[in-house]
Structures are given as C-alpha cells and as structure tokens.
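Team,

Forwarding the record for the chain on the shared tracking sheet. I've put the sequence and predicted structure together so nobody has to dig through attachments.
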Amino acid sequence: MSIPFYFAAEENETAPTSDMLYAQLGYGFNADGTLRLPTRLIPDAPPVIDDLHLPAAAPPPAVLDRLAEACGNGCFLDFEQPINEVSAAIAIGLQQRMRAKITVPPALHRLCPDADVQVSGLLCNCWESFTRKAQALYGNQWVLEIIPWNVSTQINRNGTAKGYLKTAQCSYRSENGATKYYDTEASVKRKIAVAEKYGCRAAIALLREYKQCAD
C-alpha cells in the first residue's frame, strides 16, 4: 500500500502497531461557540474537525487563524450536519489559510474545489465501479473513508458457507438462513489498493471501528 492510511483516534487511544498513521479527533467548537482543541496532541496527526457544535456566526479571523495553526499537516472536515453559512465559512477560511491539504465532505466540494473530497466506502456489489465513479466525480482529489462492512441479510438457504467476494471486496459467511458480509484487515487493504488505481490519495478510518476487523 503506497497511499497513506490514517486512523482517527482520541488523544488517549493507542494503536495496535507503532507505525500507524494517526489523525486526531476532538477538534471543533464548544456549545458556547468557543474553539475546542484536544488537551494532549498526537504528534504529527492531522486534525479531524467535527461539527457537533457550530458557532452562531462565522468565526472571527483570529479563531480561524488559531485553528489553521493546528492544521500544519492538513486536516479532515468531518461535517455531518447540512452545510450552512457557518460551516462553509469555516471550510473556506481554513483553505485560504492552509498550505497543507484540507479534506472536505462532498457537500463542500463546490465551495472548496482545490480540496480533497472524503468519499464514504459504503456497501456495494462492485467495488471497482464504486471507485471508478469517485474518480469520475473528483478526479485524483479524493480520500476514501473506510467504514468496515458488517451487514447481515436473511436468505432461504440451508447449510453453512463462507468465502470472499472479489467483486465486492468483502468476506461472507452463511449460516442459519442468514448471510453476513463483512470486512477484515485483508479486505480493507484490497479496497484501498483498488481505490488507489482510481485516483484515491489517502484512506482514513476510525481506529475503534477498524479494531473490529479481525481476520
């Protein structure tokens, strides 16, 4: 794997191996609109900035300056609420102040055309088609968000079976009339390798979710 794979972690979380790349959770704003930063920084970890709370108005330049200072290694905007004037101002303000890459959700792509776009890797039948579509939309400016698959479907089938679906790039296991489709560390690596062929620049996953991927 040649593209970077980041693991989004809280300041007190530990990684399974010492060579893992971190992205740090805990950046954003408090309920009163003040800037929220972690108390302990993970060295070299780009911030993951959430929108759990947003200020009532666009942050003043000094606040954006301070947030941009923390993003010397880039940042990921984990904005899940509908985009509004405040979240747009934060994204645009950071991009104007930063030299490093900023990664934004698809809803902000139009406002931040030079940013990378974070694309969620949801369950699909053909992983290659999914990654090809991402490249068609965002060229070579997209980042894959790994969301480990763990989905069960009821089927009318007796017996047990297990294997690997190469087209979907996931493992499966059938028993008791149900089939479970799930990711392992190996399938995640294969997903990233295919994504890289179609312009993906990096991957990111929540560390606590990735730990559940066990071969």
